[in-house]
Automatic annotation (TrEMBL):
This is Glycoside hydrolase family 13 protein. GO terms for biological process: oligosaccharide catabolic process. Gene3D superfamilies: Glycosidases, Oligo-1,6-glucosidase, Domain 2. Belongs to the glycosyl hydrolase 13 family. Residues 32-445 form the Glycosyl hydrolase family 13 catalytic domain. Keywords: Glycoprotein, Hydrolase. Transmembrane segments: none annotated. GO terms for molecular function: alpha-amylase activity. It holds the Pfam family Alpha-amylase.
Length: 577
């Protein structure tokens, strides 16, 4: 198919650094790279793997443990690479397999781990299987690997059921058969260019276990599983009996999401990953230049479920290692709400002995510096800039709170620069497929995908020599890595200091609980061993007891005999060590 193929945390609130090394993922900070928007090595306006490779020292110096790469596979790019035509090839726009191999090797030399995106729910309509399924017509064995069905109505002119696409419109598209007549319909929960696999067919499972081994043999350290909750559909593909189905997502178990059968898929995958852990031995991999400490490969689930408790089902001991905490991501900057979701998360993860994860931004949601700049309750897709200064202040405070919590944290490229969402992109430059389909997702994900700035000057502020695939705002250079490096109080230096402290403080990172402390209304205060975190989510300063020596603060605090005055929307770290 491809032309590029190459050969238990303790119950206490702190875990010793050695334990973090053995199970590195329990307390890891993982940085998401969106390759097309990170760094462009050849000046074509599109980021690529060679660009990522050249910037790996920056990520090492930032202080992260691993890098998660959004898809770079061969793809027509109908959905920014989440429509995969060949899972064993690199799209030429990003480079080739030699570039991927070099990136992985360089990352390991720098003691960085590499996690790659895997898209098992659907393929591209240009995948060889799907093209053959269309060409061979009804009855083709290849059609059984997808969800092809006859339509309803006298002439089969109606979709097989009432399911709606996440991107808007029906979740079914009718094909034209080889003889030119209207024919069967195929299921696509996302864009029509993304037909859903039929995971009840054994060939699909066989293929993906082979794909796992291909990339594991290349040396990757794990996989982020796209739409991990979507692989298995309810028997018979029953009607949902409701319109505006997007409003139900995250509130109910759907016949196409979070079905029990998905867990058997991941149990099978886990046996594959465990084979590689055994090959590496107790002291880690033997290949030269890996530069890694002890520990194995991991799976991370993108699983949108109705509750944190259902998310925990994906990280049982014989399934996946981590699952994104979307409930936390969607929580407003409010102490009461935050404490509730923190407590529920930690309580849900303890029985399955899995680490909690915390995340504030990613490639699918409005950046948190912009979300927090707007009034609460607007969700994760916001189209207004809001109060920029307020948003940045809250974003900095929210980051320190997140990095203080027990478990693993995810950072999205550019958040360490305090980047806002670009909310005023002209309609003609937008590329989010949901933008062009009515009644679907808001379709404004391009705003968080604008290429990040590295330098003050240049056609793309150091992103590359030939502009950028999405236009960058004027003034982007003043938020660049160059403009913030070495500047006391800059958001970049705050992140660097926070990640350094997180590595140095034995109480931070992996763990399963916090000790909540008394605090004024609107303030969160908790202790982890000799470490204390206080977050003021209110719009006014508060005075709290000092908890030892100040390690770090997201804003200027004032200490006196009465305690410490913590400004509005500010988080402080203390230690008694």
């Amino acid at each position: 198919m491809s032309q590029q193929h190459l050969a238990a945390p303790a119950d206490d609130t702190a875990v010793a650094p050695a334990a973090q090394h053995r199970d590195w993922w329990r307390g890891a900070v993982i940085y998401q790279v969106y390759p097309r928007s990170f760094a462009d090595s050849n000046g074509d306006g599109m980021g690529d793997l060679a660009g990522v490779r050249a910037r790996l020292p920056y990520l090492r110096d930032l202080g992260v443990d691993a890098v998660w790469l959004s898809p770079f596979y061969a793809s027509p790019q109908a959905d920014a690479g989440y429509d995969v035509a060949d899972y064993r090839a690199v799209d030429p726009m990003f480079g080739n397999l030699l570039d991927a191999d070099a990136l992985i090797r360089d990352a390991h030399e720098l003691s960085l781990r590499i996690i790659v995106d895997l898209v098992p729910n659907h393929s591209s309509d240009q995948h060889e299987w799907f093209k053959r399924a269309l060409a061979e017509g009804p009855g083709s064995p290849l059609r059984e690997r997808y969800h092809f069905r006859p339509g309803k109505g006298k002439a089969g002119e109606l979709p097989p059921n009432d399911w709606e696409s996440i991107f808007g419109g029906p979740a079914w598209t009718r094909v034209t058969e080889p003889d030119g007549t209207p024919g069967e319909w195929y299921l696509h929960l996302f864009a029509p260019e993304q037909p859903d696999f039929n995971w009840n067919h054994p060939a699909v499972g066989d293929e993906f276990r082979s794909i796992l081994r291909f990339w594991l043999d290349m040396g990757v350290d794990g996989f982020r599983i796209d739409v991990a909750h979507g692989l298995i559909k309810a028997d018979g593909l029953p009607d949902l009996g409701a319109h505006d189905q997007l409003k139900l997502l995250g509130n109910d178990v759907m016949p196409f999401f979070d079905q029990e059968g998905v867990h058997e898929v991941y149990r099978q995958w886990r046996t594959v990953l465990d084979e590689y852990a055994e090959k590496e031995g107790p002291e880690g991999p033997s290949a030269e230049g890996r530069g890694r400490e002890t520990g194995g490969r991991i799976f991370v689930a993108e699983a949108w479920t109705p509750t944190i408790e259902r998310t925990a089902n994906y990280v049982r001991p014989d399934e996946l290692h981590q699952a994104f905490n979307f409930q936390y991501l969607g929580t407003d900057w409010d102490a009461e709400q935050l404490r509730e979701v923190i407590d529920r998360t930690l309580a849900a993860m303890r029985p399955v002995d899995a680490p909690a994860t915390w995340v504030l931004s990613n490639h699918d949601v409005t950046r948190h510096a912009t979300r927090f700049a707007n009034p609460p309750g607007l969700g994760t897709q916001i189209r207004t800039a809001g109060d920029r200064a307020l948003g940045l202040r809250r974003a900095r405070a929210a980051t320190l709170l997140m990095l203080a919590l027990p478990g693993s944290a995810y950072l999205y490229q550019g958040e360490e620069l305090g980047l806002p969402d670009v909310v005023d992109l002209p309609d003609e430059v937008r590329q989010d497929p949901a933008y062009f389909r009515g009644a679907g997702q808001d379709g404004f994900r391009d705003g968080c995908r604008v290429p990040i700035p590295w330098t003050r000057e240049g056609s793309s502020y150091g992103f590359g020599g030939g502009g950028s695939w999405l236009p960058q705002p004027a003034g982007w250079g003043e938020l660049s890595v160059e403009a913030q490096t070495g500047v006391a109080g800059s958001t970049l230096e705050l992140y660097r200091a926070a990640l350094a402290a997180r590595r140095e403080q034995p109480a931070l990172g992996a763990g399963s609980g916090v000790e909540w402390l008394p605090a004024p209304e609107g303030v969160l205060a908790f202790r982890r061993g000799e470490f204390t975190c206080v977050a003021n989510t209110t719009g006014a300063p508060v005075t709290v007891p000092a908890h030892g020596r100040v390690l770090l603060a997201s804003g200027e605090i004032t200490e006196s005999a009465a305690g410490a005055e913590v400004p509005a929307d500010t988080t402080v770290w203390w230690t008694t060590a």
